[in-house]
Amino acid sequence: MDEFKKTFMSYFDDENKDMCVLLAIEALNKHTLTIKELYEDVLRTALNSINSVNDKDEDDNDSIWKEHIKTSIIRTVIESVYPFVIREKNKVSQLGIKVVLVCPEKEYHEIGLRMISDFFALNGYQPIFIGTNTPKDQVCIAISKTRPKYVAISVTDYYLLFEAQKMISKIKANNKDIKIIVGGNAFKHNLNSISKIGGDIYLESFADIFNLSKGDVK
């Protein structure tokens, strides 16, 4: 794992999308890496590195374009390995439980939520991934059409917690029994905000979803 991670991050730092994709596919084909390990130990590290100090060019304070390039690499890796997610989820007993996954309005960071969506699939849930910048009215329509047990909301930007709160309030006004799952960097160091905005459950890892599924097994 350490050698793979070192090699992957070297290509990632060089913005070599092709090699990042090929490395991930090869490792999953050879069973030297699991989806969980790829997402949590490698891609999460890559994602967190995007905004690190060392990732900034000292002579270029405006590095948004670099962030977009690297984010697109992670997104491409995730989409490229989805056949392996299908392979693994078909080995798991299905719970028959739907989860709608969204980001509130103005939140454009959805990569973490995309990985969580696959983790739900690998634990027997039926994820319905809507993703970035979702109007709350559209979330309510999606809920009425799909009838999920859970709505998972991801917030990266702390200043968008109020948008999440408005979304949760609208959801709960019309769907008393739905449980609201929250996650993302906005909550990680601010756990007291979860109940304040109406969240019911905080999740951030495969283990968290696995533990949730144990309570949902019929």
Set down the secondary structure blueprint.
Elements: H1 2-13, H2 17-29, H3 35-49, H4 64-80, H5 82-89, E1 98-102, H6 111-122, E2 126-131, H7 136-146, E3 150-154, H8 161-174, E4 179-183, H9 185-188, H10 193-196, E5 201-202, H11 206-216
Parallel strand pairs: 1-2, 1-3, 3-4, 4-5
Average pLDDT score: 92
Contiguous helical run count: 11
Helix/strand/pairing class, anyone?
Answer: alpha/beta
Percent helix = 55-70%
Q: Give the spatial strand order of the biggest sheet.
A: 2-1-3-4-5
Radius of gyration: 18 Å
* Spatial gap, N to C terminus: 35 Å
Oligomer: single chain
SSE arrangement, N to C: HHHHHEHEHEHEHHEH
Provide the β-strand percentage band.
5-15%
Task: Let me know the number of strands.
Answer: 5
* Unreliable sequence segments: 53-59
Morphology call = globular
For the biggest sheet, the summary is: 5 strands, parallel
